[in-house]
Amino acid sequence: MEYPIAVDVMGGDYAPAHVIEGIKLALAEDDEISVIAVGLPDAITPLEGMDRVACVGASEVIGMDEHPAQAIRAKKDSSIVVGCRLVKAGDAGAFFSAGSTGAVMAAATLGIGRIRSVTRPVLATVLPGVDKPVILGDIGANADCKPTYLVQFAEMMKAYATAVFDVTEPVVRLLNIGEEDTKGSAFAQECHTLLAGTVEGFAGNVEGKQILTADADVIVTDGFTGNVALKTLEGASSVVFSQIKATLSSTVMAKVLIAPLVGKLRKLKDRMDPDQFGGAPLLGVKGVVVIGHGSSSPTAIAAGIRVAARALRNDLTNKIAASLSEE
Question: Structurally, what CATH architecture does the domain formed by 1-118+284-327 represent?
Answer without folding.
Answer: 3-Layer(aba) Sandwich (3.40)
